Amino acid sequence: MCTGMRLSKYGLMKDLKINSRYQGILLTPTGKKIVSKEDYNIIKEKGICVIDCSWAKFNELHINLNKIETRLLPHMVAVNPVNYGKAYKLSCVEAVSATLFLAGLYKEAEFILDHFKWGRSFFKVNQEVFALYKECNNDKDLKKVETDFLNTQILEKEKRKLESEKELEFSDEEEEEDREDYQNLFANIDIDTMTNDLTRK
Question: Which of 5, 62, 75, 167 has the most CB atoms around it within 10 Å of its CB?
């Protein structure tokens, strides 16, 4: 069931028709800025809007974005049952919660997730990156932190790959050494003599 529909059922969200007049923060894949603490007042007064569709199909909606405050979300990983572990594949409630957090509304961000069994896992899984985002005050800060974090992740992944390759190489060397030891062990054995001895016995 769509998390947005469930939030609507709880009275925490309401449906809007496409191209309805809206003055709050609209999350889109085409936003120019990352939502930040600079958006605190807009969110408190006007709210947050999420679009219940795949970003791959966003352009098919033909939404008029003129005079609408569009925003992006930085890197984070989904924990919803459909897209668990996938970056940027957030459900409606994850997107709303992340927006609240980035704007500095931490209690509200946790409250909205509490309506889902897996909700609190969102911040646990993304604990490292959210700790960094919490120190940011604006879009510029967030972009830098996001870039640095992703670069670090890439370097760590490459490091783990090299370590894995070295372990494999070391394992191959050990196997080769064992093979040479066995060869040396049997190098001076006369197979014919051994066979005759065993046959006589």
Answer: 75
Whole-model pTM: value is 0.76
11-22 pLDDT, tens digit each = 998 888 877 778
d(CA 123, CA 114): 12
90: number of Cβ within 10 Å: 24
173-184: b (≥16 Cβ within 10 Å) or e: eeeeeeeeeeee
Retrieve residue 22's tokens.
Answer: 């809206």
CA separation, residue 97 to residues 34, 51, 54, 152 (Å) = 14, 14, 18, 25
- 71/94 Cα distance (integer angstroms): 15
pLDDT in tens, 28-61: 888 889 999 999 999 999 999 888 777 676 767 6
Distance CA 11, CA 55 (A): 25
CA proximity to 97, closest of 109, 87, 107, 108: 109
Q: Give 87's strand partners.
A: 77
Q: Mind listing the pLDDT tens digit for each residue in 102-149?
A: 999 999 999 999 999 999 999 999 999 999 999 999 999 999 999 999
Q: Which residues pair with 132 in a beta bridge?
A: none
Helices 106-113 and 92-102 pack at an angle, to 10 degrees, of 170
